[in-house]
């Protein structure tokens, strides 16, 4: 009688094919090919969503940034001071952009994020065109409020969507691609604005049907504003609402509701983390907006460039340096994430902020214009980091049903500090302290030096707090 072991050997020897081999598995099955095709289609669609939202982001920055290039004709026609212009550029936009983001984000955590984004694109595009109809400071201020209100719908809803589409180790790159929209938009604003201003430099006004006589800078607003309506229609027709993932469950076993109260409670639970995150990235972003908002005025006032020349040069710098910086930031976040750093996004932001201080302060202090452009190129590269880094940090820590609302609260803080206070601080120092518009470069350097040091300190402290928060939420890899 044979034991079990010998039976196994006989059976194996009697088989023409060893039982542990399966030749069919050596070839891809039909199911495997179907799964591969489905995976590729899903990946292509995911990136399509990112690209179409990036295009929307491009248009949003064209619409908001075009103002800074046309500073001189707008000031002349509307009889504005630098401080009044800074209110149009900063406070008027940031006021509604920041505050409207909170209730819109509350809807985005409950309703269709795609419909909310599409409605926002259409609204801010029409408001940008309305800037071209402005005849005085009040009308322009109200139109800029509309631009801010519409643009408030985009980023919080997108940040919530992208975290449902991509895993954490690819989230940085997706947010980096989205972020380049800000800088492609800013670059195009300067290039398009410079081209239109150059094209129409000998034309004082144009006559449009129904509207009548308008200045060339007003026509520019209409040209850049209206294409957004077509994009809004494309998005609503081609993008579907993704399934929500990463919902937080409370101690009672029930899913935490997407409410304002719960979003505030979540922030309070991690108050040290979010304080360093919100305020640190706000000071970092202040440096970005001081560069985008006042660099054109600096080069026109101190180096004798006209608006068209300034638009072309800064447009090219922003398209190359800022786009590369945003993509590098996204890659660096994923690099740190794959190596187990749970604070990858905050760490990346701290590195970028530290690297930005010197070039952002010195580009206005050197006499050689070529050297100044070289320094601002480096500054623009590192100035991009706060957009993808701050968004990634929020999405990695925050549960799905609160993502848009927490993002909106960050954008509220960031825009009031960075855009509302930062750009106005440059103008106030120029108007009230130096009392000379040519000294705008010194004002930029002062604001960037202070904001940069504060930003690095807060983000450095925030790294440890963020790691602790990730452990508390059981999300840390370490």
From TrEMBL:
Gene3D superfamilies: MFS general substrate transporter like domains. PANTHER family: PROTEIN SPINSTER, SPINSTER. InterPro entries: MFS, MFS_dom, MFS_spinster-like, MFS_trans_sf. It is found in: Membrane. Its main location: membrane. Residues 13-35 are annotated as: Disordered. The chain crosses the membrane at residues 47-67, 87-107, 114-135, 141-163, 175-197, 217-239, 274-292, 312-333, 345-363, 369-389, 410-429, 441-460. One of its GO terms (molecular function) is transmembrane transporter activity. SUPFAM superfamilies: MFS general substrate transporter. Keywords: Membrane, Transmembrane, Transmembrane helix, Transport. This is MFS transporter. Pfam families: MFS_1. It comes from Acinetobacter tianfuensis. Residues 49-467 form the Major facilitator superfamily (MFS) profile domain. GO terms for cellular component: membrane. It is a multi-pass membrane protein. Residues 23-35 have a biased composition (Polar residues).
């Amino acid at each position: 009688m044979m034991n079990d072991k010998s039976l196994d050997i006989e059976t194996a020897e009697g088989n023409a094919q060893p039982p542990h081999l399966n030749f069919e598995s050596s070839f891809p099955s039909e199911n495997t090919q179907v799964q591969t095709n489905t995976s590729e289609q899903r990946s292509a669609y995911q990136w399509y969503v990112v690209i179409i939202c990036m295009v929307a982001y491009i248009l949003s920055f064209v619409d908001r940034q075009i103002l800074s290039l046309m500073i001189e004709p707008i000031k002349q026609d509307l009889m504005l001071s630098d401080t009044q212009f800074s209110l149009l550029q900063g406070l008027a936009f940031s006021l509604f952009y920041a505050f409207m983001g909170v209730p819109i984000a509350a809807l985005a955590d409950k309703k269709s994020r795609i419909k909310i984004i599409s409605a926002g694109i259409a609204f801010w595009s029409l408001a940008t065109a309305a800037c071209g109809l402005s005849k005085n400071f009040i009308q322009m201020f109200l139109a800029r409020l509309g631009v801010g209100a519409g643009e408030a719908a985009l980023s919080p809803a997108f940040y919530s969507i992208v975290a449902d589409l991509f895993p954490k180790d690819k989230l940085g790159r997706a947010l980096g691609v989205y972020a380049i929209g800000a800088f492609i938009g800013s670059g195009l604003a300067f290039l398009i604005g410079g081209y239109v201003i150059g094209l129409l430099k000998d034309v004082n006004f144009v006559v449009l049907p129904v509207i009548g006589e308008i200045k060339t800078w007003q026509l520019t607003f209409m040209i850049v504003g209206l294409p957004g309506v077509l994009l809004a229609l494309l998005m609503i027709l081609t993008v579907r609402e993704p399934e929500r993932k990463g919902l937080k469950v409370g101690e009672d076993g029930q899913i935490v509701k997407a409410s304002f109260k719960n979003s505030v409670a979540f922030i309070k639970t991690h108050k040290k983390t979010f304080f360093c995150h919100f305020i640190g990235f706000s000071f970092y972003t202040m440096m970005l907006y001081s560069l985008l908002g006042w660099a054109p005025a600096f080069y026109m006032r101190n180096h004798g460039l006209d608006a068209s020349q300034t638009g072309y040069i800064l447009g090219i710098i922003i398209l190359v340096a800022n786009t590369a910086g945003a993509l590098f930031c996204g890659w660096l976040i994923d690099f740190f994430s794959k190596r187990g750093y749970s604070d990858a996004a905050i760490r990346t932001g701290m590195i970028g902020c530290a690297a930005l201080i010197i070039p952002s302060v010195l580009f206005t202090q050197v006499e050689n214009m070529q050297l100044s452009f070289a320094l601002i190129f480096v500054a623009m590269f590192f100035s991009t980091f706060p957009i993808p880094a701050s968004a990634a940090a929020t999405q990695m820590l925050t549960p799905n049903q609160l993502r848009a609302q927490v993002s909106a609260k960050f954008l509220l803080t960031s825009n009031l500090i960075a855009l509302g206070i930062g750009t106005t601080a440059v103008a106030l120092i120029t108007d009230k302290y130096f009392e000379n518009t040519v000294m705008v470069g010194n004002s930029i350097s002062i604001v960037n030096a202070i904001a940069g040091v504060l930003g690095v300190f807060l983000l450095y402290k925030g790294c440890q707090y963020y790691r602790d928060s990730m452990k508390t939420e059981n999300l840390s890899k370490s």
